[in-house]
Design brief:
The protein has one domain. Helix content is about 65%, strand content about 0%. With about 270 residues, it is mainly alpha-helical. Helix 1 packs antiparallel against helix 2, helix 1 crosses helix 5 and helix 8 runs antiparallel to helix 9. The protein contains ten helices and no strands.
């Protein structure tokens, strides 16, 4: 399996952008993540400008929109939201005690994940496969994921402004307890779909690593959130009813808790 030069250029871009994590440990997987995806979308457009088609341009633009929205939202929350800082004090490690070698390993691993995540579209460009029905279906799913996640974030922010001490169970939160994570999974499922008909042979291994990796990260994030919410709202009878009747991640799938799955650590 030989990875093309442009794959390594995307990896280098993700390394450069996500290096913001050395400023704050958690930024490797938050702000650095969002802007890395945006950067990779832009770089693919620059690298393959002569062979771009309407469908691949759309997919790359969706990477940029997705990444800038997510990175910008997380940056604002980290830097400007006093309520978020207050609530998360003691919940998230500041990274000061993390050995530098471990930070390097996390940095490289994250950058590698980010480039494999976009590989469904990347290999369509590498293979000069143009645009077909799968490109547009994938792009539509990607767009839906962005909208779904954005609405979930807005609904949570609005709910917390009204009652910062209560858990959120309105809007999309009536469907699943982590609709923002569900939106993420929908978006990356769209990327996976966009590769159908273009990705071939061992290239699917790279695509699968990125897709399985981000799904694992989303469920790991849901577990951390569940543990935190159980700590904050566990004695509330309404919360207990909510968590027993609303699935944690996927609608209509009766998975109500992932707290016991200790292997979900990322």
């Amino acid at each position: 399996m030989v990875l093309p030069l442009n794959f390594w250029l995307l990896f280098a871009a993700a390394m450069i952008i996500s290096s913001i994590g050395f400023k704050n440990y958690v930024w490797f997987i938050s702000i650095g993540y969002g802007f890395s995806i945006a950067g990779e979308g832009l770089l693919m457009m620059l690298l393959y400008g002569k062979t771009l088609t309407p469908g691949t341009v759309l997919c790359c633009l969706l990477f940029i929109i997705y990444g800038c929205r997510l990175g910008g939202y997380l940056a604002y929350r980290e830097l400007k939201s006093s309520s978020y800082k207050k609530n998360m004090t003691g919940e998230i490690k500041d990274g000061k005690s993390v050995p530098f070698g471990v930070k390097i390993a996390i940095w490289v691993t994250c950058a590698a994940l980010y480039v494999t995540q976009v590989s469904g579209v990347f290999y369509r460009l590498v293979n000069v496969s143009g645009s077909d029905v799968w490109t547009y279906i994938g792009a539509a799913v990607m767009l839906f994921g962005i909208v779904f996640e954005t609405v979930a974030d807005i609904q949570k922010n609005n709910s917390k402004k009204k009652n910062p001490r209560r858990f959120v169970d309105t809007g999309l939160y009536k469907i699943v307890r982590c609709p923002n994570y569900l939106g993420e999974m929908i978006f990356w499922t769209g990327v996976l779909i966009s590769g159908i008909g273009a990705v071939t042979g061992w290239q699917w291994l790279v695509v699968a690593i990125g897709y399985i990796g981000i799904i694992f990260v989303m469920f790991s994030g849901a577990r951390r959130l569940e543990i935190r919410q159980n700590k904050n709202y566990g004695k509330d009878p309404e919360y207990q009813k909510y968590v027993k009747t609303v699935p944690i991640m996927v609608p209509f799938v009766p998975l109500y808790s992932v707290e016991k799955y200790k292997w979900l650590v990322a």
